[in-house]
Amino acid sequence: MEIKEFINILGIKAGMHLMVHSSIKQIQKIIPDFWAINFIDELKKNLTNEGSLIMPTFTYNFKKSLGKSIAFNKENSESKVGMLTDIFRTRSGVIRTSSPTHSFALWGNIRDSVYSDNSPVSPLGGGSVPDWMTSTENSYILLLGTDFRALSYGHYLESIVKVPWSNVSPWDHLQVLPIGVSNDGLQKLQEIPGCGKPFVNFEKYLLSLNLIHRNRINSFSYYLLSVDTLYKSGLLFFKNYQDKLLCPRNTCQPCDERRRKLAL
Q1: Domain count of the chain?
Q2: What is the pLDDT of residues 133-178, one digit of tens each?
Q3: What range does the domain containing 219 cover?
Q4: How far apart (Å, rounded) are the C-alpha atoms in residues 137 and 228?
């Protein structure tokens, strides 16, 4: 399959504001000679300058209570959430936000509203790129070969709903403090996103109500998700099914840390 055909099948249209989470390993099942630069360029062509292309470029540069803390460098720090995202951040016309822990690479229309100095104290909450998408029509999230464990928007919903653990750090066992470290200095954080594995329960909920559809190309699966649907349905799910938003007890250290601190 050619990349241009692949993007047309995905349903990418002009004017969309599109955040992409992807697994290149899964994409290569249907496009063995997948070339990331060509894929990025074809996405831009479909979206046009009226749309936006957005990818997470998270680096998790937290201050440590023990050991050396590595500072975030906006130009040089490599993304830790996939090769495609790291290639995208270096392309012409792309800017990167300044969050030491949860930066985003941005191209297109979004650059008129979200600037390179964007670095909210809730990295995926109010004032963040997911927040901008929520308030902007025609915003979508594309999951390519991944499920909702990769859905960073789930952390935005945790923040907006204010689940009990939204401001409780789950990373003490990694000596992580609620402080981002960058070349510009230290930034105290109100919230630290935790484990995303329970978001598959949100996925199952949406599927059960036929609010989303898992699309397939042979063995490859993908979602094209309306942010409006995720937000409206997510407010209900994250308020009413909080027991499904932490991993089962004794299976996940970050989730157990939050339980312990809140005596859940």
Answers
A1: 1
A2: 999 999 999 999 999 999 999 999 999 999 999 999 999 999 999 9
A3: 3-262
A4: 8
